[in-house]
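Students often ask why inverse folding is considered easier than folding. One informal answer: many sequences map to the same fold, so there is more than one right answer. In these notes we will look at a single instance of the problem. The structure comes first.
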């Protein structure tokens, strides 16, 4: 059976680009690995944050647009994005969040402790310690390698039809059901990062797309050949995937599972060094070839942004 190794990336919607960078790079210590535009709406940035090289399983992406309405987290969405931190780093992160005025709480799920908090737009995030996954070698501000976020631990899905979402996770994507605890059903993939998916069985409201919500979750395909097989499988199983689209840094296809969540399948290659070297990732606005002629116009329109060390780390 074909199996995904786990999450490729998660994409969300927010209002303010600089505030977004300050939180994910400045507070959480992730690297801005790509500053580009939404290929479908070039007037909106598309910002990618991950580990030092932006490896699959570490990257969260954002469409920051000041005019979009506030969304509501609920069914048909990724409800919570989970990150993995190194063993022993919980005290560091509790102190760091406290120092930057980020309110947090702790909870236990499947025997693991989670630090739960929201980003400035209301996205629900959590951190948990695990041995799995390589250390993130990116050091920025007050976050050093020994405490840095490794990448995704996984996600909590808010499905309108949990049994239908379960079918996709098990029978299409090849995840294994690990069991139920209270209102959560856990699944695991074969990868060592971005590999743990929980379905919350009792979400209370229907999700509304907008700022502060996840737009889609993407699953990993090994390469373009594997990607084609995923599309054939989806068609065979009665889903309606899009055509394969070129997103410059990966190939993508999309489909809605019956619980209402937008799923993407994305290729691991070519990655973020296809158009700029590792040492310069995220430093300049990168455009696809077909929009290069509009660079001056786009740079004038898009708000100026920068990655900066925040006052709390100076």
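Output (designed amino acids):
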């Amino acid at each position: 059976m074909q199996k995904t190794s786990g999450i490729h990336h998660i994409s969300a919607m927010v209002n303010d680009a600089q505030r977004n960078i300050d939180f994910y790079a400045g507070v959480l210590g992730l690297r801005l690995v790509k500053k580009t535009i939404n290929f479908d709406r070039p007037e909106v940035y598309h910002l990618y944050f991950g580990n030092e090289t932006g490896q699959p399983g570490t990257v969260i992406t954002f469409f920051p647009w000041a005019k979009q309405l506030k969304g509501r987290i609920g069914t048909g969405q990724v409800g919570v994005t989970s990150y993995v931190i190194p063993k022993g780093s919980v005290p560091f992160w509790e102190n760091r969040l406290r120092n930057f005025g980020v309110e947090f709480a702790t909870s236990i799920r499947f025997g693991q402790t989670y630090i739960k908090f929201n980003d400035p737009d209301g996205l629900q995030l959590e951190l948990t310690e695990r041995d799995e996954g390589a250390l993130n070698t990116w050091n920025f501000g007050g976050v050093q390698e020994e405490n840095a976020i490794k990448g995704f631990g996984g996600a909590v899905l808010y499905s309108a039809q949990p049994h239908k979402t379960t079918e996709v996770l098990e029978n299409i994507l090849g995840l294994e059901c690990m069991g139920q605890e209270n209102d959560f059903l856990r699944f695991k993939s074969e990868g060592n990062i971005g590999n743990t998916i929980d379905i919350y069985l009792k979400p209370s409201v229907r999700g509304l797309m907008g700022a502060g919500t996840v737009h889609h979750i993407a699953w990993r395909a090994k390469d373009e050949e594997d990607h084609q097989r995923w599309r054939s499988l989806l068609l065979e199983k009665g889903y309606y995937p899009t055509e394969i689209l070129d997103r410059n840094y990966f190939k993508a296809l999309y489909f809605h599972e019956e619980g209402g969540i937008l799923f993407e399948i994305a290729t691991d290659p070519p990655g973020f060094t296809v158009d700029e070297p590792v040492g310069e990732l995220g430093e300049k606005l990168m455009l696809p070839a077909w929009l290069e002629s509009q660079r001056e116009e786009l740079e004038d329109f898009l708000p100026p942004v920068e990655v900066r060390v925040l006052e709390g780390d100076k």
